[in-house]
Amino acid sequence: MSRGxxxxxxxxxxxxxxxxxxxxxxAASDALPIPEQYDRYLEPFLGGGAIFFRLxxxxxxxxxxxxxxxxxxxxxxxxxxxxRAELAHHNALHCKEHYYAVRASxxxxxxxxxxxxxYLNRTCWNGLYRVNLKGEFNVPIGTxxxxxxxxxxxxxxxxxxxxxxxxxxxxxxxxDLAKEGDFVFIDPPYTVQHNFNGFVKYNEKIFSWADQIRLxxxxxxxxxxxxxxxxxxxxxxxxxxxxxxxxxxxxxxRASVLAGKSDRRGPTTEALFFANLS
Length: 278
Hints:
Number of helices: 11
Distance between the termini: 19 Å
Structural class: alpha/beta
Strand content: 5-15%
Shape: globular
Strand order of the largest sheet: 3-2-1-4-5-7-6
Number of strands: 7
Radius of gyration: 19 Å
């Protein structure tokens, strides 16, 4: 394959999801190091997809372990008009009672599941995806009332996703596909205390320190195969020690947005690790 999958950076798309810990702020900045050309783009923790939609790679492998999230991306790719029509229905009905009725529902068809996921994402507290021990989504209703914007369509997102392989799987399986000429962007859950962001206990349940070590090992293998890699993570000494000798490091400054009250949000840092980008 030719080295022709460089980013279409002048055609960035606004992500259709809001996502706690998402990288819209990074996508909008010049702080993300990107190789000039790459064969494929790989992203094993897709989340809101801010970097994917910023780069719009022509060839991509994107994945996540969240089955509902992956189903939504597939529906946006394959059935964008139907998704919009169903979301408009929820927009007309949105209220507190409707939110909790949808939250308690369990659609069996792929379109219904995808619409439920996007509706809850747009109307729950802070775009947080959280489930209880039974696997039930349990985030309370948020303050946003807009379910569907008047001029919104999902066609551009569908076009961006058209050539992407979208999979529900463990991060290690996706990273192990990376080889020389590929570019891998990795944004895992942050699992150590990160500037007291108040989100740590939840993340520790879904992504343990053992997972952090397993991630570092998979990054090391990808780097040894010649893949270009960027990892964002908690800017904590234990994480910096983990990647020492594997990737270069620099801190990223940003505003914290995870505190419940705006007056508790302030400047914080995240770690950026990278290798083989020249």
